[in-house]
Design goal:
Layout (H helix, E strand, L loop, with lengths): L2 E6 L1 H6 L6 H8 L3 H5 L9 H11 L7 E6 L1
Antiparallel strand pairs: 1-2
């Protein structure tokens, strides 16, 4: 089974988005701002949050992360 290094890239995606700040984005997603501010430091994610974040940004869930396969 392959192993992966997975790094969140929400800050990078938000910088390129139409949203002015994390608070505005959190409101659009329907979550509280701390949920968004912790996104890049988490290692586990609620699937409903991942779906909402990806749909709000118009990207796939996989696009929310840099994924590197390691041996």
């Amino acid at each position: 089974m392959p192993k992966y290094i997975v790094k969140p890239r929400l800050k990078e995606l938000l910088a390129k988005s139409k949203f002015k700040n994390q608070k505005e984005f959190a409101e659009a997603v329907g979550v509280k701002e701390p949920t968004i501010s912790r996104f890049d430091s988490q290692t586990r994610y609620d699937i409903a949050t991942l779906v909402a974040v990806s749909r709000t940004l118009g990207v796939s869930i996989e696009d929310l992360f840099h994924i590197e396969e390691v041996e």
